[in-house]
Specification:
MetI-like fold, globular, mainly alpha
Length: 338
């Protein structure tokens, strides 16, 4: 098992390096000059312009620029944003915390909807409940995320006025910063007003993410449960007099590995920036930060944020693989690794 983990770790490092090269190269192929953004409306001479380019390190060979960026990135220094004149690492971390909070909320909704629905469908395989659940899951996967988000805004925000249309928390209600997670900080500081506002602001974007995630969880877990239901150990458990809850718990544990893989991949992707959802709801997360940085041709912020996003994704994927090793004894003992 250690060999498999080390192999996954090696693949993770290779992926991060490849992503860093691709991002570093592509951002420099996009139209626009970051020096124009840096100087703004200033009327400067050609010499001053070249001085700015030198200060930004853009006058050096691209290979030298890349290795300089890579070396500083390894030490945790992602540079300074051209537009915002502040640390890329600080901006990226703040945005990531917002994305993390939204992703966890969406994951909870997805699990709370997907797991019971999958269990209901599997236990009634071929019946009306199964067909309805499968149809709803297919609809949840097929509906575009941006469309669902817009419909929720139109119905629950504009028509009924139950939730705000965008943002993370109401003006002037932000709690004292402790962890950077607004809901957690509201609980730690016992700030009821901030907690109420944060929950209202996160409700619609989290529901948008949760609906799509629950559909994927339901479909995969349903198929696994149907297969597990026919296994001999289920009949043996029932013959020993175990109650329904205990039998269902054993079934879920044996059907979990494929679902864990799907959830891990989805979770990692969302942590890397739920770009569509964050754009629709103006959620100040990593996805929205990258979109704004690309529009502004902010080289350091784009390459630093995307590299951070890639590291987060491959790290979650690595952890998912490790969890899978522990859940599936066939892989843990080398049955599928040969």
């Amino acid at each position: 098992m250690l060999r498999l983990i080390l192999n996954r770790l090696g693949q993770t490092v290779v992926v991060v390096i490849i992503v860093s090269v691709i991002v570093f190269s592509l951002i420099r192929l996009t139209p626009g000059d970051p020096v124009d953004i840096f100087i703004g409306e200033q009327n400067i001479t050609a010499e001053q312009r070249e001085a700015y380019r030198h200060d930004l390190g853009l006058d050096r060979p691209i290979v030298v620029q890349y290795f300089d960026f890579a070396w500083h990135a390894v030490t945790g220094d992602l540079g300074q944003s051209i537009l915002q004149r502040t640390s890329v690492a600080s901006l990226t971390w703040t945005a990531f915390l917002a994305t993390f909070e939204l992703t966890v909320a969406g994951l909870l909704i997805g699990v709370l909807i997907g797991v019971p629905t999958a269990l209901l469908a599997a236990l009634n395989h071929g019946k009306l409940a199964d067909r309805l659940s499968s149809s709803v899951a297919l609809l949840g996967i097929s509906v575009p995320t941006f469309w669902l988000g817009i419909m929720l805004i139109l119905l629950l925000s504009l028509q009924l006025g139950l939730f705000p249309t965008g943002g993370r928390i109401g003006a002037g209600l932000a709690p004292a910063r402790i962890t950077g997670l607004v809901i957690v900080d509201s609980l730690l500081t016992a700030n009821v007003s901030a907690l109420s506002s944060a929950l209202r602001y996160i409700a619609l974007p989290a529901l948008t993410i949760g609906v799509a995630l629950s559909a994927s969880v339901m479909q995969v877990l349903r198929g696994s449960l149907i297969a597990v239901k026919e296994e001999e150990f289920v009949s043996a458990l029932r013959s020993r007099g175990l109650g329904r809850v205990a039998v269902y718990r054993h079934m879920l544990r044996n059907a979990a590995p494929p679902t864990v893989i799907i959830m891990g991949v989805k979770f990692g992707g969302l942590l890397g920036g739920a770009i569509v959802t964050e754009s629709v709801f103006s959620w100040p997360g990593l996805g929205l930060l990258i979109v704004d940085a690309i529009r502004a041709r902010d080289y350091p912020l784009v390459q630093g944020a995307v590299l951070f996003m890639a590291v987060v994704f491959v790290t979650v994927s690595l952890l998912t693989d490790i969890v899978h090793l522990f859940l599936d004894p066939r892989i843990r003992h080398g049955g599928e690794a040969k």
